[in-house]
Design goal:
heterodimer; A: MetI-like fold; MetI-like fold; B: alpha/beta; D-Maltodextrin-Binding Protein, domain 2; 2 domains; about 35% helix
Chain lengths: ~575, ~300
């Protein structure tokens, strides 16, 4: 290309052809339009299909067809109404337990000088690498009707099936999610307030109730809201350990797959959507408040804790960590024991999966998750860039659209996909691509939020410099923004990858003869009574996620990035 | 460094895209409710017998499979259904879900095992039975049941488990056979007035759990989670082989059995390949393999009692 510049002229170092400049003017609107359409078509359209089927006779959209018959049927059938109360009960109890536990755990990590914090921090994050069915599988091996502890150590008739089982498994599953929020809150609140109160003569108890608790209240509420949402939308744990105790998520699945009542399934989806949407909005409101509480002068130095306090918190954190480790140990052990709990010979035979898909499901999951990770992290970064720094028209609207997926239960989204896209002209239906799309959309919120917070940390003058030096949108993005957000990109990739490897609820309606997924294989194996093989599949997933996590850590260390790990995650 | 990261991602994307299989073989999508362990075994044989077919299959319980096929009615994802309860298959005929196809060797199958019009052809039978954990029975000093009626004994409270008839073909078969066995007059009255319902209400008091799959009750009984699993006969043989302390009870009131049949789905996208598969599914080679799992197969001359160990 002929250069009409002198080497000293910095402004013309990057010559741009007129065509490229023409194209550049359309890049931003085109990208904005693409993201909006993506969310419209793959989020709102499936939701609309569910609304249509639950409120209109035969799913035909017309005023004359409007009916509340489905809701009437739901609320007049004792068995299905029970699912709502069950769901609310287990979710509220789980929420209270998790919030209390995690508050003290995060308190121990941020306000005390106990030893082994790094260890505890890593352990509390562990549940993120496993599907939300792991807890239930392990608990049944320990406390089932023929559990190691219930039937063989203390020989009791009592077993864990039912609400107790759901609550305990959900508590163990939700800990890391709530921890991230409360850890951030507690480490951001200015600790000098506590010190000041103490030096003014307040008792430790008074400091705790008057200073520590109130200053963290928004974090506490936000953690509680998230736990509630995770529990009420979870499918894996209740379906395995719930026994005959039905919750909304399992009831949707039962109505659709056992009774072929898509209309009732859609109706229950709406009923599930209401509390989860309300809690999401509440959380959204809360998390805005949280920011105002965070003081820039937060001081990280912690005064040495008293011995008794240290012992107490060490014991407490050890107990929680023990519970989490136990789950993982039992699942891994259970996958190697020949006949639990009769024959303790170790064997690999459960790894010869007695299913059609077997290992191919695992590989499909890995490839799908890699694509989800890369494409998801990229799209959300682009979307965040467009929204945050280029301020397109309707910015607020697009922002609202892109945080909405967090409010939609995976199972509901999955059902919506079946209802909306099961047409011969949607060529992607029944291929792995629908799973890819579903996973990207379901986890869009977190990608966007992490993208936005990263971009806020990039000095806008760097970008301005690029543009004033003649860099067009594409060049600025790829040469400036993308490299600078590399660490965040890795983290978002990891998040998408883990979610896609471990999610059950979002994709259970989307697996088919051509697309088998590992997390769903766990459910299917367990359904058919191959519990040990279900454990084996679970172990494989955990192993793969851990390997990818390790690889990513090495890559990000090599490329000089900051800490990329589970703690830096979310 | 930037290039390294970039190239790593390029490689990952390339691999991911490359992972989508591009097979030169004829694809056929098969839905089945046969037990997973059978299917794995049969499909291995099918791959040998039909080397030019790329068989993609999914295994779901009888009810789940029916719901899935109904949901996909306007956009069928499968080409044929294989080893699916005849009761459900017969319901599919008037719903227009199936296409007439008489596979090669259709004439050899006795008339009572196939649809006269050729919508479906049965290949084997399976029998409702009770699988009992002998160790649990010993520990809890429970009497061995002889049949369904013994299960009403209050000592079994919470010890029984059976499949949910809404999702499981086995569960449906158990209820259907009880309706016939418990009420000799069943033909002359509406099904709501059948005496078996009173029996089932009583049985419900002892039932520990209703579960989705037909084989899981047997497996949970084997694992000691429950004492007695209402399940079907052949799953017992494989549990025994694996070393579980189980024994089989064929109810003294009579054994309900169900045919498992194959059919071609309407709107099949790979009809030619599906027909090849259906031919194979009632052929001698497949039937012989079925007989190693099942008590009865419909192919004349095949061994009708296999390794089920009865």
């Amino acid at each position: 290309m002929p250069l009409n510049s002198s080497p000293s002229d910095a402004i013309e170092r990057y010559p741009v052809s007129p065509l490229r400049m023409e194209v550049d003017r359309f890049v931003l609107p085109a990208v904005t339009l693409f993201i909006t359409l993506l969310l419209f078509f793959f989020m709102l359209f499936p939701l609309f299909a569910i609304l249509k089927l639950s409120f209109f006779k035969g799913g035909e959209f017309a005023v004359a067809n409007f009916t509340l018959a489905n809701f009437q049927k739901y609320f007049t059938t004792a068995y299905t109404v029970r699912a709502l109360w069950h769901s609310l009960y287990v979710s509220i109890v789980t929420m209270i337990i998790v919030t209390v536990i995690i508050f003290f755990f995060a308190y121990a990590m941020t306000r005390t000088t106990i030893a082994g914090k790094g260890f505890f921090r890593n352990i509390i994050m562990m549940p993120l690498v496993a599907p939300s069915i792991t807890q239930a599988l392990a608990l049944i091996y320990l406390f089932g009707r023929n559990g190691l502890i219930t039937a063989h150590l203390i020989r009791t008739e009592w077993s864990i099936y039912g609400p107790i089982g759901i609550i305990i498994s959900e508590v163990l599953y939700c800990l890391p999610h709530a921890y991230v929020i409360l850890y951030t809150t507690l480490s951001a609140v200015d600790i000098r307030l506590d010190e000041a109160a103490e030096s003014l003569g307040a008792t430790p108890f008074k400091v705790f109730t008057r200073i520590t608790l109130p200053s963290a209240k928004y974090g506490i509420l936000s953690a509680a809201a998230l736990t509630f949402n995770l529990t009420i939308t979870d499918f894996g744990n209740p379906v395995v350990i719930g026994g005959d105790y039905n919750v909304l998520a399992t009831e949707i699945y039962a109505q659709v797959t056992n009774l072929y009542r898509f209309d009732l399934g859609a109706t229950i989806s709406i009923i599930l959507l209401v509390p989860s949407l309300m809690v999401f909005l509440f959380n959204y409101y809360i998390s805005r408040k949280t920011f105002s509480m965070i003081s820039g002068a937060a001081k990280p130095v912690i005064p040495p804790s008293r011995l008794l306090k240290k012992i107490g918190f060490t014991v407490f954190c050890s107990l929680i960590s023990f519970g989490i480790i136990l789950i993982f140990v039992i699942v891994v052990l259970g996958s190697f024991v020949k006949v639990w709990p009769y024959d303790w010979t170790l064997t690999f035979k459960h790894y010869h999966f007695p299913s059609i898909a077997g290992y191919s499901a695992l590989w499909t999951s890995v490839w799908v998750s890699l694509v989800v990770g890369i494409v998801g992290a990229f799209i959300t970064l682009v979307a965040a860039y467009v929204m945050e720094t280029r301020k397109p028209l309707f910015k607020q609207f697009i922002y609202l659209l892109s945080v909405m997926p967090a409010a939609i239960p995976g199972l509901v989204m999955g059902l919506g996909y079946v209802l909306a896209f099961n047409k011969s002209y949607y060529f992607f239906y029944g291929t792995p691509w629908i799973v890819v799309i579903n996973n990207i959309i379901c986890n869009f919120t977190l990608g966007i939020l992490s993208g936005i917070s990263t971009l806020r940390n990039i000095d806008p003058s760097i970008e301005e410099a690029s543009i004033s030096l003649g860099g067009d949108t594409l060049r600025t993005f790829f040469k400036i923004i993308f490299p600078l957000s590399r660490v965040a990109f890795f983290q978002t990739f990891l998040y998408f990858f883990m979610r896609s490897m471990t999610t059950i609820s979002a994709v259970i309606f989307l697996v088919s003869a051509t697309v088998h997924l590992a997390a769903i294989e766990i459910i299917m194996l367990d359904n058919d009574g191959w519990t040990a093989s279900a454990n084996a599949m679970c172990t494989c997933i955990i192993l793969i996620v851990l390997v990818v996590l390790g690889l990513l850590k090495i890559v990000s260390l090599k490329t000089g990035g900051r800490r990329t790990g589970l703690t830096a995650e979310v | 460094m930037k290039k390294t990261v970039f190239s790593i991602f390029c490689i990952m994307i390339a691999l991911a895209v490359g992972a989508v299989p591009a097979s030169a073989k004829d694809k056929v999508v098969v839905y089945t409710s046969l037990e997973n362990e059978e299917v794995v075994d049969y499909l291995e044989l099918a791959k040998k017998d039909l080397p030019d077919l790329d068989i993609q299959a999914i295994r779901l319980s009888t009810g789940e499979l029916g719901a899935r096929m109904m949901a996909e009615k306007d956009n069928p994802q499968a080409d044929c259904v294989w080893g699916w309860a005849v009761t459900n298959m017969a319901e599919f005929v008037p719903k227009g879900m199936l296409t007439v196809y008489r596979p090669a060797g259709w004439d050899k199958i006795p008339a009572k095992f196939k649809d006269p019009d050729g919508y479906w052809t049965a290949s084997d039978t399976y029998e409702a039975a009770l699988v009992v954990n002998t160790k649990v029975m010993e520990e809890k000093k429970l009497p061995m049941p002889k049949g369904w009626k013994d299960l009403l004994n209050p000592v079994y409270k919470g010890m029984l488990i059976m499949p949910n008839p809404a999702s499981s073909g086995t569960g449906f078969l158990q209820i259907a056979s009880l309706l016939v066995l418990m009420d000799p007059d069943y033909k002359n009255k509406p099904v709501e007035q059948n005496k078996a319902w009173d029996f089932l209400k009583e049985l419900d008091k002892n039932m520990g759990q209703y579960i989705k799959s037909g084989s899981k009750p047997a497996k949970l009984a084997a694992a000691g989670e429950y004492a007695i699993g209402c399940s079907f006969a052949f799953v017992y043989a494989s549990l025994k082989k694996q070393g579980f302390p189980v024994s089989l009870v064929l109810p003294e009131e009579g054994v309900g059995y169900e045919l498992e049949a194959n059919g071609l789905l309407k709107g099949a996208k790979n009809e030619k390949a599906a027909k090849k598969f259906l031919d194979w599914a009632i052929g001698e080679s497949a039937m012989k393999r079925y007989a190693t799992f099942k008590l009865g197969v419909t192919y004349p001359g095949s061994r009708t009692s296999g390794s089920a160990g009865l």
